[in-house]
């Protein structure tokens, strides 16, 4: 289904885990509603907490906020409330733990080297 309007919601957990979720909408009206904002936050939190592998897996997961419904069921309820289709089109999740670790010794002669680095190097 084609969604001419896109809305991206972000969530960052303790500066260590982040999620970007893109929603497809028929109009920009839906993106300005409180119901959509609450749902977008919930989905972004879900992506950060549960690390689904793709959109289908995300929609099949039980909601961490409302265990009696899946994200897909909550999406259908939201679409009915707003009177227009809403879709999760894609998402990305990253964490500091997933990032490659690159350990370099700081250059004490570099002008941005901290005083602690300079003391440790001497």
Count the beta strands: 3
Instruction: Quote the average pLDDT.
Output: 86
Helix fraction, binned, reads: 25-40%
Q: Within the CATH hierarchy, at the fold level, what is the topology?
A: Tetrahydropterin Synthase, Chain A
The side-by-side strand order for the widest beta sheet comes to 1-2-3
CATH class: Alpha Beta
What does the model show?
The chain is an alpha+beta fold. It has a single domain, classed as Tetrahydropterin Synthase, Chain A (2-Layer Sandwich), CATH 3.30.479.20. The protein has helices spanning 34-50, 55-60, 71-82, 115-121, and strands spanning 5-13, 17-25, 86-95. A three-stranded antiparallel sheet has the order 1-2-3. Strand 1 (5-13) and strand 2 form a beta hairpin. The chain is elongated. 20% of the residues are buried.
Task: State the gist of this model.
Residues 18-97 form the Translation elongation factor EFTs/EF1B dimerisation domain. With 122 residues, the protein is α+β, with helices and mostly antiparallel strands.
Topology:
Layout: E1 5-13, E2 17-25, H1 34-50, H2 55-60, H3 71-82, E3 86-95, H4 115-121
Antiparallel strand pairs: 1-2, 2-3
Helix pairs in contact: 1-3
Domain Translation elongation factor EFTs/EF1B dimerisation: 18-97
Organism: Lysobacter enzymogenes
Region (Disordered): 99-122
């Amino acid at each position: 289904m084609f969604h001419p309007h896109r809305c991206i919601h972000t969530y960052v957990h303790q500066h260590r885990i982040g999620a970007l979720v893109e929603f497809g909408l028929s109009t920009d009206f839906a993106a300005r509603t409180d119901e959509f904002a609450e749902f977008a936050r919930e989905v972004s939190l879900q992506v950060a907490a549960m690390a689904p592998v793709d959109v289908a897996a995300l929609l099949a997961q039980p909601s961490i906020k409302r265990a009696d419904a899946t994200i897909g069921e909550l999406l259908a309820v939201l679409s009915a409330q707003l009177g227009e289709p809403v879709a999760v089109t894609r998402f990305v999740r990253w964490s500091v733990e997933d990032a490659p670790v690159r350990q370099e010794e700081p250059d004490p002669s570099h002008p941005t080297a901290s005083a602690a680095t300079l003391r440790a190097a001497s």
